Every structure is written in C-alpha cells, then in structure tokens.
Amino acid sequence: MNRIFNPVAIHNPQGRKPDSNIGRILLDMGKISAADAERILLMQKEKGMRFGEAAQALGLVTEADIEQVLAHQFDYPYLRPGQGGFSPELVAAYRPFDAQVEMLRGVRSQLMLRWFGSGRKTLAIASINPDDGASMFAANLAVVFSQLGEKTLLVDANLRSPQQHRIFNLPSGQGLSDILADRAELDAISRIAPFIDLSVLSAGTLPPNPQELLSRSSFARFNQHIEHGYDVVLYEVPAFSTGADALAVATHAGGVLLVARKNRTRIAHINAAAEQLGRYGADVIGSILLED
C-alpha cells in the first residue's frame, strides 16, 4: 500500500459530513473549554454577535483559528505553521489565504480550462535555470489542485537534483528512478494525508544516467498507468540548462508549463526552450514569471 504521512491537521475524511457548528469544532480543536463556550454564548446573545466574533472579542481565539474552522466547515484542508514538517515555503499548505496562493489558484483555473478540462491528465513543470523556482512552484500547484478535489500526483522527475522529498518531508527511499529501473513498484508513491487528494512520488535513487532512464519505454508505460489513477499528474523536471531530461518527460506528458524568474531568466532562453519543445511535439501551455 502507498505510504501515508499524517501530521496533525484539521481535515475532513472522505465521505464524512463536516460539523457545521463552529463552537463544537473549536472545542474539538482544544481552542476553547466548555466554560469558554458558555461565556461566548452569553456575549453572543447579549451583543447579537456571531459565535466566532464573540470568541475573538473575548480574546479566546485568534483570526487564524476562525479561518481554520471555516476551512474545516468547507472541507478545505490546510496546516498551521510548523505542522507536518513541510517546507515553510509551501504556502498553499500553510497560508492558503495569501495573495501568492490566490495567484496559484488563478494558474490552476487557467490550466483546468486550457489543459486538464479537455481530458488531458499530465503536465510537465520546467524551468530554464535550476534556481528559477520550479520545484517549489510545482509543489504549491499540486497542493492547490488537491484542495480543489482533484486527485493529484506530483512526480519528482528531476533525477539530477530532486527537491520534492525535502519539501514534503518524505524519508529517503525508492521513487521514480527505481520504478523505471524495475527495482520498485507503485507503492513507492506517498499519500500526503492532510490533503486527502494529494500524493507525491519522490525521485528515488539518483541514477548515473537520468536522461537515458527517462527515455526508456518503462517511462511511457509508467505514464500511461498513472493517467488512469489520477485526475492531475504534475511532473517536475530538471532545468533546461542542465540537460535534455525535460524533453524526454515532456514528450510523454504532452504539455509543459515554463517557470521563469524575474530579472534572471532571459526571454531568448524561454523562446529557445519553447521552440525546442515544439519540435519534440510538446505543447507549451504558458509561462509563469516568479518574483525574486
């Protein structure tokens, strides 16, 4: 079975109707006591306030606590800072109401309309240079897709300098390279339990021949197999400046989203990458410009 990593989080198991009573949720979270609830109810009645507003006015809970309760009510999982041991840069997991995450949701909407909405399942996330931010962008994008209820798999196909195991605090072990070399099965995929629709496949053992491994027929078979099990499959691939690995993955994924870094990535290099991808039969869906 797939490994499951389950840090403490407010999330709703599939098939279970969320408890809509904000007081009950705060009690279950340990944020208030029964005596606190009585004080809140009294103020709520006297002042005509909502329960959450009264709780905040009494100083018993914070705005962040109320946001987390609302997320629970609407089955929108996220983590409090420090939970899970994930990278703090995984903003979609820790700070889902930030403007940065709103941008990610905008990208998600565009991709649903222009790519996944037409029945496609796989997309490669590629950058020009290793420090352009593709790893963290891909990780956050995977989280927001899972928050939409799309069964999402993030595959670390960067077999040169993988990062997803670090971002999601996954133990070192078998991954994509081992599957392609027939040394592991699909149970190497890890479910990220706070996000019930998110799974991650780390890169696995670093091979001496990453480009050749990604070009094998075993990758085509792997890609076809996972397309049947997920709604969205995101491949994070090595930067174009490090080799032709991205082309091997893009050929099977069919589409590529290019990630660029403001004031670092040259437009000429983006255009050259897009032209090269086109020659290999991959569609460039668009490009994302990340701020420094």
Automatic annotation (TrEMBL):
Keywords: ATP-binding, Nucleotide-binding. It comes from Oxalicibacterium flavum. SUPFAM superfamilies: EspE N-terminal domain-like (SSF160246), P-loop containing nucleoside triphosphate hydrolases (SSF52540). This is Chain length determinant protein tyrosine kinase EpsG. One of its GO terms (molecular function) is ATP binding. NCBIfam families: eps_fam, EpsG. InterPro entries: Bact_polysacc_biosynth/exp (IPR050445), P-loop_NTPase (IPR027417), T2SS_E_N_sf (IPR037257), Tyr_kinase_chain_length_EpsG (IPR017479), Wzc-like_C (IPR005702). PANTHER family: CAPSULAR EXOPOLYSACCHARIDE FAMILY (PTHR32309:SF31), TYROSINE-PROTEIN KINASE (PTHR32309).
